[in-house]
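Private note to self, pasted from the team thread so I don't lose it. Backbone tokens:
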């Protein structure tokens, strides 16, 4: 699969994983529902998507669970009342928590980017077993996914900081309609960078294996 097709595939899958829930949330808000009700709807949609993925793959999917946790945290935050500016700031808090979850996976089990990449690079049981073997035996393989996870975590944390600064400086009416577009733009940029970085890493790994075999 070439890079362009891979990027489109990942963006489409991320839309299904995250965009459906975000879209449900935005539509609900557009119809005038409360933030809590809209987040509840988004959480339910994220849960249904996760259930579909888990049933189709016959295993628990880490990224799908991550989306449920993200919306669940947003649901809890929505219970905290405050000014309209504070409600916008809570969106930034959710982004920051997403970044912290990515960092947490570096210390517990496999990093989040391993699970996300496995959705596209290991489509059957045999390939997933091979990935597990590479994780155990290949230091470069582990380092790649840890590096990717750190970059994604930093991306979420920087996004959260930018959101907080803009929410503090700009009028609420200016920020409210543009805030939901921050994360899709960030994810698209991260996906493009990740695919290109992974392709270069795979090329280096193949060259290393060729040199080792020749030696």
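Design output:
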């Amino acid at each position: 699969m070439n890079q362009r097709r891979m990027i489109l595939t990942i963006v489409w899958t991320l839309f299904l994983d995250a965009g459906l829930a975000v879209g449900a949330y935005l539509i609900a808000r557009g119809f005038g529902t409360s933030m809590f009700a809209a987040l509840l709807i988004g959480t339910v949609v994220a849960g249904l998507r996760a259930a579909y993925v888990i049933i189709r793959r016959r295993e628990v999917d880490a990224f799908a669970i991550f989306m449920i946790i993200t919306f669940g945290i947003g649901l809890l935050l929505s219970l905290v009342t405050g000014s309209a500016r504070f409600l916008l700031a809570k969106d930034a808090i959710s982004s920051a928590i997403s970044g912290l979850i990515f960092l947490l996976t570096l210390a517990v089990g496999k990093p989040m980017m391993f699970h996300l990449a496995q959705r596209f690079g290991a489509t059957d049981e045999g390939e997933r077993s091979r990935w597990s073997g590479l994780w155990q035996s290949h230091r470069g393989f582990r380092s790649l996914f840890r590096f990717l996870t750190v970059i994604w975590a930093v991306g979420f944390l920087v996004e959260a900081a930018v959101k907080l600064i803009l929410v503090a400086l700009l009028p609420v009416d200016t920020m409210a309609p543009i805030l939901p577009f921050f994360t899709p733009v960030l994810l698209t940029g991260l996906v493009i960078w990740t695919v290109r970085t992974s392709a270069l890493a795979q090329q280096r790994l193949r060259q290393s294996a060729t040199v080792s075999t020749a030696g």
